[in-house]
Amino acid sequence: MASLQPARGTQDLLPEAARRHRRVTDTARALAALYGFAEMATPIFEFTEVFARPIGEHTDIVAKEMYTFTDRGGEEVTLRPENTAGVVRAVLSNGLAQSVPLKFFYSGPMFRYERPQKGRFRQFHQIGVELLGVPQPQADIEVIALGSRILRALGIGERVELQLNTLGDPESRAAYRQALVAYFGARISELSEDSRRRLERNPLRILDSKDAADQRISSEAPLFEAFLSGASQDFFAQVRTGLDRLGIAYRINPRLVRGLDYYTHTAFEFVTTDLGAQGTVMGGGRYDGLVETMGGPAMAGVGWAAGIERLAMLIAEPQTPPRPIAVVPIGAAAEAAALGLAERLRDGRLAVDLGYSGNLARRMRRANRVGARAAVLIGDDEIARGMVTLRDLDSGGQSEVAEGDLAAALSSLLG
Ligand code: ATP
Ligand code: MG
Fold first, then answer.
1. What pLDDT digit, counting tens, does each position of 47-56 carry?
2. pTM for the predicted model, two decimal places
3. Of the residues 66, 114, 115, 126, which should be mutated to test ligand 1's pocket, given the most ligand atoms within 8 Å of the CB?
């Protein structure tokens, strides 16, 4: 029955996957806090205009990937495809623009109508940070350093490469744009249909095309370098020097442009070769024009977002949950006492798995299946004596313990 399948491009997070996700978000959240980024959350849907104009009409996201619908009240809303525009909207709605610098961390689901494949989903999850109100390159450096630290903490620092580029200031960009229009215009018949459309509105985006013919033509396109203003070159040099000083390795990739329209100056991606075509695990950059585009004051911004699914796939060890204690009652009186005993152990912060039904053998099988470290066996006659049997499920050894001493015995067993 088709309706019993998850919708295309969505997936269930079963416990083992959920543990990997949690490891990524917990690691990122804790390290973001070290840098002074405070967690915040914006709604999962917003008025469509929050995304459409800032991200750019001719980006893949807005042109093809947004989940947009009219709600029952006739409002046009969109499931968020990314979170930078939402964070900026929140800053403006809540009147926070006066209190810069602002540093935010977020995590949560994003939605894009894409062709699902390994590492590419229609509902996926991101962690991200935004640093608003700091025009100096220190902000770019710090934001990249945080990203790099998170990847190292997740144990994948060695498997990703930091690629770096600059998109310059708006003047440099305008000059480069003209050069690209001239270059691609002369070869328009070789371009993909998408890129022919981009040529008019946003020729930089052609450099980001995934079409093979486009990529071949792009490889000979003029480089941004030649069009960078002195100020833009200087800014980029400061970012590079800052990263050098921190010992953060990078490779300049002059073809790196980011998917969204609002980037200026620094653009970067952490890329791995371990995930096939979906190798970008974290991407970001500076977006000094965005706040103004959205109706706010002129305000600098820089940040990144990372795909949690892609990071989770790269984590070596599946994270195992703490091993519980199995409480195994045998007999009617014991059955009645078991819930209370389990609660008392949980009062002491022990994880407890209660076998709900079945004979001793069946409940012991369950205890093994959940990976219990020990079993507390209680029978009717033991209850009468205030005793329980504690069985070490690793060694198989067991002993009788007074119920009052059980918590201490378990603590010493669990180390
Ligand atoms: P791509 O080039 O892979 O489409 P993008 O440039 O569209 O990526 P961003 O908008 O920069 O991606 O999002 C930041 C990160 O979010 C990506 O580097 C990736 O790790 C993750 N991401 C983006 N789209 C998806 C998706 N559909 N499924 C899973 N992860 C995604
Ligand atoms: Mg994309």
1. 999 999 898 8
2. 0.91
3. 126
